[in-house]
Design brief:
Length: 100
């Protein structure tokens, strides 16, 4: 598999339940999509745990969104203020799930 192909990441909660699949070429790209749907703020970010499909690797991020001015060259349908997602990789950034 080449690095430029989209990969699937499953959103996990603290209890290990999995729900929602997010696609991205990198784990960070999928985490940004999760952050844009979340309720986190910069002061109180959401914890985002993404397991890469077909692996035991879980990527851990903290994510939030902020309302920012839309870009100057925005299309007509875009509002003047938009939500912009932000993510920060947690240390350790990747944990391996144990065999069940």
């Amino acid at each position: 598999m080449s690095k430029s192909e989209p990969r699937n990441f499953v959103l996990r909660d603290e209890k290990g339940n999995e729900h929602g699949v997010f696609t991205g070429k990198q784990p960070r790209q999928a985490a940004l999509k999760v952050a844009n749907r979340g309720k986190g703020t910069k002061e109180n970010p959401d914890k985002i745990m993404l397991r890469e499909r077909g692996t035991k690797k879980v990527h851990i991020f903290y994510g939030w969104k902020q309302e920012v001015d839309a870009p100057k060259n925005k299309p007509d349908w875009m509002p003047d203020r938009i939500n912009k997602p932000f993510v920060r990789k947690e240390k350790p950034g990747i944990i391996k799930l144990e065999q069940v």
